[in-house]
Here is the input.
Amino acid sequence: MGRRVAITGVSSQWGAALARRLERDPAVSYIAGIDSRPPPPELVATEFIEADLRSSSLSRLLPSTEVDTVVHCGILWYPEPGRPPRVLHEINVIGTLQLLAACERTESLRSVVGELDVVALHAQRALEDLGDLLIVLDDENADGTLGGFHAY
Here is the structure.
């Protein structure tokens, strides 16, 4: 049995690119794409799960996927046109907290991957509850390369 991966923000550029890559990886047997918007149509092996990260329903949905890895790409970097700036905060902060709460309830989960600034700074208490499950991406290198992975 291969890896089972959930990707939040699967309709985003980063989430869709990761899903495309994982769909070609024979070591991955299941991909769940979680987003409030549908992913690109070329993602044929990714199961789309329509959900808003800000909703507590994620705590019911995520455990049912039996994933071993969650990759958090459901981050907004800039306010979207036509949406109030508070939505940026709600999705990034409240959404990350709801996701981490859902991760706590997912017994099959072994790894959570996310961007350092958003995950670590906005969800410190939830990080402590997850213990050593969390791996974050640190993109602090000046040349734009990935700085590395950190387990918390």
